[in-house]
Amino acid sequence: MTTTTRPFIKTANTTMSMMFLVLLSLLPAAGVGIYHYGLHAALLIVVSLVSAVGFELLFELCLHRPVTIADYSAAVSGMVLGLILPPSAPLYFPVIGSAVGILLCKMLPGGIGKNLLNPALAGKLVLVLAFREQMNDFSANGISMLTPLTQLAAGNTISPGDMLTGRVAADIGTGCTLAVLAAALFLLLTGISDLMIPAGCFLSFTLLLILLGRHGWNPVFLAAQYMGGSFLFTVFIMAQDHTTRPLTRKGRFLYGLGLGAAIAALRLLGYVEDAAVFALVAM
What are the backbone dihedrals phi and psi of residue 35, each rounded to the nearest 5 degrees, phi first? Predict the structure, then answer.
């Protein structure tokens, strides 16, 4: 892969190969989400993926630019957006999110590598701001459910085991901790990501929760905070976006420190479900 601006990096990886591997890594999370939340969750993922690719293709055809959808970057954005939607979201939500993420945040600035925000993250942000109530409705198959973090805040007991396997109320692809960690391990082993951002994030996030979270060193509380609210998906998947993360290892560690601190601060202020989204936008 080569770049048109410094620093120049030589590697056997191409954008296409890297994006394809990211897609593969997300399949277990998608599969578990569909298994738990049903057909509507599958439709949301498909609509999101097709919309993202379609908007990029339409933009390039209308402006007579080279077609780039074969590099899988639009497909990755669509897949990620679908996975971070609640399972009860209307089918037009991923269309709106893809339009914002692909057209406004990716293609208008010049395409892949020139966007200031992760397209999927931008789409999610707009949906949260415009449709806050629906984006916090985690019902599935007609059954209303509360997320583990919401239950924890209300003083209810939670099951870390259910959070591991995804038998909880959550965004489609973020509820199963095992699936998210499998994706993270795959990306680490293939060299697409590293541990610098997660290391910094876990350090600052954990310290702030222990010092200010009124639970001290409580393993169940900390485990729920790690596994809930899209924390792991944000840290291991979305924050690793090559366009928007820092270039150096030290920079990525400091970026992780800031991200973890921001997520902890927002959760302590009561923004339990959306903290990771707003924190990553800020970073």
Answer: -60, -45
Residue 152 tokens read as 């924890």
Do 59 and 109 touch, CB atoms closer than 8 A?
no
Structure tokens at 161: 């085991």
User: Do 105 and 116 contact (CB within 8 A), yes or no?
Assistant: yes
How buried is 211 (Cβ within 10 angstroms: 0-12 exposed, 13-18 middle, 19+ buried)?
exposed
Q: Quick one: three-class SS letters along 74-94?
A: HHHHHHHHHHCCCCCCCCCHH
- The pLDDT profile of the chain, 283 residues, written as one tens digit per residue, is 445 555 555 666 788 888 999 999 999 999 999 999 999 999 999 999 999 999 999 999 999 899 988 989 999 999 999 999 999 999 999 999 999 999 998 888 887 878 788 999 999 999 999 999 999 989 887 676 888 888 888 778 888 888 999 999 999 999 999 999 999 999 999 999 999 999 999 999 999 999 998 877 888 889 999 998 899 999 999 999 888 888 899 999 999 999 999 999 999 998 878 899 899 999 8
Farthest CA pair distance, the chain:
58
